[in-house]
């Protein structure tokens, strides 16, 4: 959980000035991304293909939805084969 102003408000007791910000999801971590841009802090983010790239310096493509799609397709194709063999018996 990120408290707004952590990177920009020097009067806060929780103020910190990181050298690098690494994020896992730009959609949910939009506040720290905006603050790091204001403080000229480089930002690296692990992104899906539909992630917003504004204020992100380096985006690493890790399409988590594709991994779930492949796994579910494999799981359901095995389930269908078992179901068909049960029906034929």
Assign an overall shape.
elongated
- Relative helix content: 25-40%
Number of helices: 2
The main pleated sheet reads as: 3 strands, parallel
Please mark out the parts with pLDDT under 50 across 5 or more consecutive residues, or reply none: none
Mean pLDDT: 75
Radius of gyration: 21 Å
The end-to-end span amounts to: 55 Å
Structural class: alpha/beta
What secondary-structure arrangement, pairings included, does this model have?
Blueprint: E1 21-23, H1 30-38, E2 43-47, E3 58-61, H2 64-88
Parallel strand pairs: 1-2, 2-3
InterPro entries: Ribosomal_uS2, Ribosomal_uS2_CS, Ribosomal_uS2_euk/arc, Ribosomal_uS2_flav_dom_sf
Protein name: 30S ribosomal protein S2, chloroplastic
Organism: Aegilops tauschii subsp. strangulata
Describe this structure in words.
This protein is 38% helix and 13% strand. It has 89 residues and is of the alpha/beta class. The chain has a domain of 43 residues. Strands 1-2-3 form a three-stranded parallel β-sheet, covered by helices on one side. Helix 1 links the parallel strand 1 and strand 2. The chain is elongated, with a radius of gyration of 21 Å. The termini are far apart. The mean pLDDT is 75.
């Amino acid at each position: 959980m990120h408290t707004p102003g952590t990177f920009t408000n020097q009067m806060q007791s929780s103020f910190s000035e990181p050298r690098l910000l690494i994020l896992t999801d730009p959609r949910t971590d939009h506040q720290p991304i905006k603050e790091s841009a204001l403080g000229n802090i480089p930002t690296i983010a692990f992104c899906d293909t539909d992630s917003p790239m504004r204020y992100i310096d380096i985006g690493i493509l890790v399409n988590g939805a594709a991994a779930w799609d492949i796994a579910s397709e494999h799981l359901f194709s095995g389930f269908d084969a078992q179901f068909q063999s049960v029906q034929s018996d």
